[in-house]
Structures are given as C-alpha cells and as structure tokens.
Amino acid sequence: MNIAKVNQISSKQYRKYWEVFLLFVAISFLFAYAFPAFFPNEGENIYESLEIFQWLCYFIFASDLIVGLIRSKDKTLYLKQHPIEIIAVLFPFLRPLRVLRFLSVSSLVFQKTALGKASSVTVRLAVASVLLLFVGAVEITLTERYLEGSNIKNIGDGLWWAATTVTTVGYGDRYPISISGKFIAIGLMLVGIALIGAITATFAAWFVRMVQDENKSI
Fold it and tell me: What's the predicted TM-score (pTM) here?
C-alpha cells in the first residue's frame, strides 16, 4: 500500500470522526437553542451561557463550511449545494434570522438521516417536518410569550400552534400578534405546505408501488 493511498484512507477516517463530532455539536445546539422556551425562569446567567454556547456551535459549523468552500474544486457548485448555510454565515447577527443559525446547524442532521437509498427521502422529509415544527414552536414561544394580549404563553401553546399551522388545520385558538411572529408564521406556512405535500406524494407513490407489486405477483 503506497503512501498516497494510506493518506487517502486516513483523510476519510478523519472526515468520518469529524462528521460524528459535528453531529454531536448539532444535537447539543438543539438543546441549547430550545432550553429557554421550555424553561423560562432559569435566570439570565444561564441564558447568556447558552447563547455563548450556541455561537460557539455556530462558528464551528461556519468554519467547517468555509474550509469546505476553500477545499472544493468547483466552488460555484459548492455554493449552490449549501444555500441556507451560506445565508446563515453571511447574516448571523440579525435577530429575525436567528432561525437561520438553527437551519444551518440542523442541516447536518438531515445529512445523517439516510437509512438507505429507498428510504432516505422519506426519512429526511419526516425529520425535516419534525424539526420545522420544533423550531417554529420554539421561535413563536420566545417571540410571543411576554407580549400583552398574546395567547401563546408557553411551549405547549407554541407546539400546538406550530402543529396546526404546518398541517394547515389552523383552528385559530392560538395565533401570533407581533410582526416577528407573523413572519415566523408565514415562513412556517410556506415551508410546511411544501414539506407536507412532499410527504403525502412520497406515501402515495409508496402505496402505488405496493399495488403494482401485488398485481405482478398474482
């Protein structure tokens, strides 16, 4: 085995370990991100520490993205393949775009959900839908909780609102009253409709394949 091949294997192993580390960082980020919504009375020191930890996670992923861009042979293709991450790196300090930090980090979770070619699309869509509902609930809770006249006061209200919004049921018993909350709602509606439609189409295609397979076996 020549030196070049050994170096190639070592590089692949390093990348594998690095991706496992990034996945651990992503999961840790999700906990830190959602903690204030679930535990609103823990004190400013804890929230400030969690915010610092989130920024640390963010810079780890931003650095990984930048290194990937530098090492990429086709930089234009690389940029096209990572649009959300690029936006999150360019606009990290704007409060309305805090959700982009979440999407940038959680994109790694999507990459790790493939369980084989046949099921990877369905699984990724399901994970994307759950994460979308989760981030919508967290964001709307943090945005609306302390507003006078708000009817979304805790994470339970936020989860209920996000679930009815993503599924387009829209009971109307919970709704945002702030401008930021309404923008969150618009984003959740647009992306939610697309995801739910994709999941429905995927399951419909799965049932069609089942029927076709049964007809072939007769």
Answer: 0.71
